[in-house]
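User: Modeling request: complex.
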Amino acid sequence: MTHMGAEGPPRGANSAPAGGSEATKPRAWGDHHTLLEVSHATKVFDVSLPWLTRALGRQPRLLLHAVHDVSFSIRRGETLGLVGESGCGKSTVARLVVGLYRLSAGTITYEGRNIGALASGRAPRTLRRKLQMIFQDPYASLNPRWRVADIVAEPIRAQRLVRGRRAIDARVDALLSQVGLAAADGQKYPHQFSGGQRQRISIARALASEPDFLACDEPTSALDVSVQAQVLNLMRDLQRELGLTYLFISHNLAVVHHVADRVGVMYLGRIVEIADKGTLFRHPQHPYTRMLLDAIPDLGMTGKQRIPVAGEVPNPLSPPSGCAFHPRCPFANERCRREVPRLLESPDTAARGAHDRVACHAVEERRLGSETSFRAAKSRL
Amino acid sequence: MSALLDVRNLRIEFPTRRGVLTAIDDVSFAIGPGEVLGVVGESGAGKSLTGAAIIGLLEPPGRIAAGEILLDGARIDDLTDEAMRRVRGRRIGAIFQDPLAALDPLYSIGSQLVETIRTHLPMGEAAARARAIELLQEVGIPAAARRVDHYPHQFSGGMRQRVVIALALAANPQLIVADEPTTALDVSIQAQIITLLRRLCRDHGTAVMLITHDMGVIAETADRVAVMYAGRIVEIGPVADVIRAPKHPYTIGLMGSIPSVVEDRDRLVQIEGSMPRLTAIPSGCPFHPRCNRAFERCVRERPELLDAGTSLAACWLHAPEAA
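Assistant: Request completed. Predicted assembly structure:
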């Protein structure tokens, strides 16, 4: 796989959109290794009632900011994990990246080329097939009336990657064996397979387009743990063999810890913290990240008493003012209620040369103490 | 030990056109008063079916073909529907995965609570309503006096599950069967619900049969744990022992396949293959085709639960003659 010829134009062209100050600009570290760069991506859904109902009831339009000013970049061969609770916008990010949704604002570049227009169909086929997606529900994402061989062959035929029936059959057999299925399985229908095997079929279909990048939206959430382990191991093997880059979406922090190199945490449409895996899990900064980590059931049973955080994720249609997390945060003050925090390099990690970022006034002002004082503050809630 | 719930040699069958399928085969366990027994297993292991049999809600054509279920020493598996309805709710409470399905969308949660309370306890309307509000406060619903008149759709997922817990506790049952009570919830809400369930059961001395696929939830909540595979219990013992030092090869594989947030591992332990279908349960030990330590006896002969230190494991590796 050679991409070097396609290496992008000078990065300056697309990395400073209007309104993006120097501080919020995604840092293009190791520029020539960056495969995918998302800057200030925003997706707004119009969830208003039908026009007539709205007019009769004198109700306003309702706009849902599913993704709000999200910026990150992924290096070639890396896995970026995105975690968050339901409704935080993580799946929308994955769909924006592969072009299933059109951006409302912001840009996405792939190998330096703008692919924000992917959904409009203007992007070249060759570029589009480089980004594929695996979905959560392997029962819903495979056509029940097609044989597995046809499902896997479809992208090959549609994109004319291989020509000739015999050559296509050989390619399908190779793909099936690559994901741990037998060539004979190609003649079966999806319902004849278990959930884990169906997810293998989804992966084979995604690989049929010869992609460099896979957006995986909760690929193992519908699977049992032992089957999940099989699929996660397979995905890791494929990443090594084929040099794949993953955007891995999950609500399960343990799974993300296992697969990701870097991790972004989302809350109500925004990234609140993004850092190297080790840093994020060992030294979480944002109060929400700390809360999520604290909420993981403790398999080690070290006798730690969990202090569950009060409250629930607010309705994204009417997000709280200022920092969206402030109603649940033990450190919130007047500024948090008023001003949306920007995703800044956190003061402590910047000193160490890492480029971890966190969107929290309390972290910026160093109001947040050590782990023990954090727990104490939380328990007072 | 005087057990509160005693399940003896339970066998559940499904008659089909192609013959009788055995979904639960010779399952025995007991739960003491105030004890939390975790039941874990992957889909198709039969854990929910076991729970449904205990609360008398086995869907036909499923039927209890053998064995008995005793509550406080008296059989409850042969009761009439009417008698079982009095046991369910009064003496055994139930919590299911989907709180929305457990609540009637057409009635306010207050009237559902009042109905449940008055069905099982001799209380007037006003007293029952007061108890309903008290229950809602106890499960942590803010402004309970006002929220009692709201309908299920006006509550969030986490709040609905609290209402379901309030319903299950309404008549002060001795036992609660909770089937995946936190699976549909987000992690932060999950932690709240588990803490709540554990606190309430401790306060009321209620025993819990906690059915889940999530080992983490079991580790935090249960006193003992039973691991199920293909309709059988393969290992049962104190939760710390089963999690730290599993004895059955299936439990060992299962524990290794769970990703950790603490440890960095290159690969997860992988159990090849998948749970057998009911139509093709292997001979002998049902786990033997996937087991890397299987030997000739495992194919031929089915292991009973054998003594394996502090826990019991259905595995020939723990046969006294093998040691």
